Queue: 3 jobs
Job 1
Amino acid sequence: MANKTKGPSAFLQKVDKLEAGTTKNVVGKSTVTVAGTAMTGPQINAKLGAADTLYAAVAQARAAETQALSAYDAALPELREFVKDYEFALKGTFGSKSAILVDFGIAPARPAVRTVESKAKALARGKQTRAVRGTKGKVQRQAVTVEGTPGLALVTPGGQLVGGVLDGPIPPGGSEPAAVQAGLPVTGAPPAAPEQGPTGK
């Protein structure tokens, strides 16, 4: 079984020492039979050198992975915010309870289940709020009216009140319309006659 306590660096250190010893003692001098195959020094070093080549690719891949992870981590906050905004937009587009949201991997919102106790509390709270605000119901609003009845008066195109008795207003507490002369209610003595000119006309 391979020794798992030693990492690639320990193995590569061993390879480097084997290459150095092969270059010094085998290359150009003799051959060595390895697993039944006679090998020259250059052949042995080429085999050993593969470890360095392969591990160099591993090191490059790890460096690229580290760089990629750094770029990912830097962009992640903005991406998370976009996902959050997009999910919010989808809920606004299709409705938070729409089954279509399942296609986007979003669970539709479930309608809130109100208990009898919560309904009773809400009803009581609503009555208290209306009492504090003085809010009136439909029947109460219909019972609130002004006293008396408005009257009518005629006005000429020039803005002058037309004389004569018109449909006068009913005063508060009264039952009969007040007489109106020249557009004004008659409450006491009749208005004075208009002054005559020098010619008496």
Job 2
Amino acid sequence: MRPRDPTPSAERPRRSDARRNRDQLLTAAVRALTKDPQASLESIARAAGVGIGTLYRHFPTREALVEAAWRTEVRRLCETAPGLLATHRPDLALARFLDRLIDDLLTKHGMLEAMRAVVVAGPTRLNPSLAMFAAAVAPIIEAGKADGVLRSDVTVDDFMTIKAAVTLARPENARRLAALLVDGLRHGARAPSPRGESPRGPGRGPRPRGTRGRTR
């Protein structure tokens, strides 16, 4: 026999409504803060189709809402990392992950400014997002070292330093800076040739991982 759900039937719709309201608030917050980092909570609640009281029940402070909205975007980005590794060589996957981060920084600059204001008031609020980034790139870095396309001494902390530098760079310089820094992580500190050949010459490239469908 299937175990009975101990949750009263009247409670389940309320929880479903609460989850839906929370999701709508986060979606509205990302859109509003992207356009205006000073967007009011009242305008965000209206855009989500809920009352200000509902907003405060989910997010007691402005900082809590901004932090949750930021983590939602970070999670969305980090969820692309496995797919990048599955279809690209690890060093290229790392570069393309950074490229997507830069896309977000350029298109959602207001969201970044709003989160920066939150971090100034409480630096530890950024820790969950940093942990998500670290967990996302760790498999890429390990695969890159195993394949011999990244330096053997590269660490996740190295990537986090690069991410911080790119985040703080002027928008027009971010992509070039990211490319230069990722090149420094590559084996021999050299980028692959445009055709994907080993920088060490024919017949001396990194050993294959046996994964089919990966960009070379």
Job 3
Amino acid sequence: MQEFSELRINAYRESLDVLCSVEVTVLSKNVIEAIEERRSVRQFKQDPIPESVVNRIIDCGLKAPSAGNIQPWQFWVIWRPSLKAALAEAAFGQEFVGQAPIVMVVLAEPARSATRYGYRGSELYCIQDTAAAVQNMILAALAYGIGSCWVGAFDEKKVSKALNLSERFRPVALVPMGYPAELPARRPRSCRPLEETVITVQ
């Protein structure tokens, strides 16, 4: 990936319905490096993340594939300390959620997928689609030197109540993000044997 000193982009913030031109810091990693180096980060510096970088991360989430290009998602970017604390409580007391500079809340909209794909759309496709968006944003964040943690352990009803969500949305992931206070040790990952996880048919 070619590096640039500055990159001018158009970043769309869906949650705020704002389109703007912003300056974004140069990417530091290509996608393969980001995949290989990604670690869950739970300790964050309190340095603010530039809004232009947050916008770019969101833009990468919006570019995720989705069944029928329906894009059954909504992304909430939570900066407010009181809401972050409520999300940490909803996440069964995982305090690091509330300590991150921002928390990205990724919502699925099952009914939107169901309009074309019925039950399978509402129960599977919208979950697959939002998961792809989460992964895009986590890798994009890492490319800008920002750590994150994909949190799936939370009470959906409490998250919905904290954000006063419409019933048509289902919380899928909480993703606290920030510059790492310390980088997790890079140790060999324990992987299942290839013969159990990869089947090749020629």
